[in-house]
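Researcher: For the record, we're logging two predictions in this thread. I'll number them. Prediction 1 follows.
Model: Prediction 1, sequence and structure:
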Amino acid sequence: VWWYMLKPYAWAMNLHQSLKEIDDVMILTNPSWSPDACKGKLRWLQDRFGVQFEDYIFTSKKHLLATPDSLLIDDSPSNCQ
C-alpha cells in the first residue's frame, strides 16, 4: 500500500508527456526489498497511465540500460552521480 500511495512530483506527468512527444519513454523503477513493492508500483503506474500501460521495467540495475542514446532521469541524487 505504501508504494501505491506515493504522490508523484508535481512536474512528473508533464515531463513524461513532453518526453513522449520526442521519443519512446520507459519508466525504470527499483523493485526494492519488499515483496509488495512491485505490486504497489504497478498499481501506481496503472492508476496514472491505464491498466494496459506496459512501458516500465522493474530493475535495480538501471545502469545496464544506459546508452549513449539514452537519457536517464532519477529522483535520487546518488544515482545521478
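Researcher: Logged. Prediction 2.
Model: Prediction 2, sequence and structure:
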Amino acid sequence: VGSYEELVALGDRALGCGVAILDINLGPSRWSGIDAYTWLREKGYTGRIVFLTGHADNHPLVVAAKRKGDAEIVSKPIDPDRLQSVVDGDG
C-alpha cells in the first residue's frame, strides 16, 4: 500500500499477512511507518515487521523503530535478492 490510510483501509487483509514491510518515513506531514507499526500491533498483528529506511541510524524515526525491539530495520537502497531474503525471513 502507499500510505498509512491505505493500510488501515485494508483492515483484516493487512492483518493476515505474514510479513509487513514498512517504510519508516512516509512523507512530510503524513503518518509514519512507526504509526503503521503501532496500528498493526494494536490490532493484534503477530507477523514479522520490517522497516525500510534511507535515513541514518540517528534519525528520530530510526531511533523510534529501534525502540520497538521486535522489528527488523533494513537500509535502502535494497537489491532484489536482499529484499527476497527479508521476505523469506532469512535476514
